[in-house]
């Protein structure tokens, strides 16, 4: 027994047929649901739009007949009639297989075209992505160079600031030293100016004259 099943020719259905089905004189076949729904509404083939007005233009069949049906359906018919019926049945089957092959080939071509388009889109996206990565890499390298340059400038500024701070500290130290020296000299000068010249009396030690401070007798 063949494992290949016929397919419902209704384009929105396309399911395997393995029980009851509807066949038409224009060599199309439909599942029980779509056949009943379509042919109860109008006698026209939904595939080729052929009008099916004759009594046997549309027939409901059982795709899995029992043994008694197989034994009796062709009984009494002449061999040439049986052969003619068989040839027509085989012709119907071959037509369905040919149409299915055409449909599958067409679907395969459409899928292949979609695949090629997707492939092109993926290659384009990959190119754009690689280009973006290259641009971002260059930006990153430029940013790193700028950061390194800025670091060096900052380091130079820090070194100059440290040197200026050292010089400032030296200047401040000298200033404080000079300030203290000036204050000390000022104090000494002030004390010297407060002693009257009359109080300076000569005193001789070992033949030398030396001025000494006379005691204050106020």
UniProtKB/TrEMBL annotation:
Gene Ontology molecular function terms on file: ubiquitin protein ligase activity
Superkingdom assignment: Eukaryota
Keywords linked to the UniProt accession: Coiled coil
GO CC terms of this entry: synaptonemal complex
Gene Ontology BP, a term: reciprocal meiotic recombination
Coiled-coil stretches: 108-164
Family annotation (InterPro entries): CCNB1IP1
Official protein name in the record: Uncharacterized protein
Protein source organism: Acyrthosiphon pisum (Pea aphid)
């Amino acid at each position: 027994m063949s494992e290949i099943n016929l397919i419902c020719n209704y384009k929105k259905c396309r399911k395997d047929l393995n029980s009851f089905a509807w066949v038409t004189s224009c060599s199309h076949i439909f599942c029980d649901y779509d056949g009943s729904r379509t042919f109860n509404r109008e006698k026209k083939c939904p595939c080729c739009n052929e009008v099916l007005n004759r009594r046997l233009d549309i027939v409901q069949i059982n795709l899995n007949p029992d043994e008694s049906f197989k034994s009796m359906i062709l009984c009494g018919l002449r061999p040439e009639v049986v052969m003619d019926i068989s040839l027509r049945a085989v012709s119907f089957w071959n037509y369905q297989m040919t149409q299915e092959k055409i449909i599958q080939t067409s679907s395969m071509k459409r899928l292949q075209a979609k695949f090629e388009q997707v492939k092109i889109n993926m290659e384009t996206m990959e190119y754009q992505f690689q280009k973006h990565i290259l641009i971002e890499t260059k930006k990153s390298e430029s940013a790193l160079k700028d950061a390194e340059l800025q670091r060096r400038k900052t380091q130079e500024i820090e070194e100059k600031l440290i040197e200026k701070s050292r010089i400032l500290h030296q200047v401040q130290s000298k200033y404080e030293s000079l300030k203290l020296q000036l204050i000390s000299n000022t104090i000494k000068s002030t004390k010297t100016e407060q002693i009257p010249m009359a109080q300076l009396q000569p005193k001789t030690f070992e033949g030398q004259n030396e001025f000494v401070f006379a005691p204050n007798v106020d």
